[in-house]
Amino acid sequence: MTDRPEPRMLTARQRDIVRTAQAVLESDGWDAVSMRGIAGKLSIKAPSLYKHLAGRAELCAWLVEDALFEMGDALYEAIDSDPDAPVEALLRTYREQALAHPERYRLATGREFNRADLLPGLEEWAGTPFWLVTRDEHRAQALFAMAHGLVTMEMDLRLPEESDLDETWRAGGQAFTGR
Fold this sequence. Notes:
Shape: globular
Largest sheet: none
Order of helices and strands: HHHHHHHHH
CATH class: Mainly Alpha
Strand content: under 5%
Distance between the termini: 26 Å
Helix content: 55-70%
Number of strands: 0
CATH topology: Tetracycline Repressor, domain 2
Structural class: mainly alpha
Radius of gyration: 18 Å
């Protein structure tokens, strides 16, 4: 288990760039996030962006970090708020977070990117709530895999239309709690 890493200290302009990129990401997906497009939305020329960040790969890392901090904070809060049913609270929150920000979720969990660009320890910290509710690294990975797979299938509309997804999520939690 690791402590929560300190977020990067971004300048005001870098925060503007991230917020603008997040808006484009959420509305149009990662493929629509371009340096030229972000610059245009900020009313500056694209080369000016490179004074504030190295390029699209660094922007991706900042967006993923933001998503991991948000998800991690929400998961820690969820399991702390419901100590009698921490698996259920974790799964409910994981699902809510992923469905509320599907493109951010996909960027953080479904794209290949250079993990070395992320803050050290951030991924481990964000994933620790799965270990906290299972107390076993293999069960934690299995719980994460179940949650990730199920939410991805839900976002992609890959489950039968008549499925009771709330019941499916409950069943997934019961597989890890025996309740």
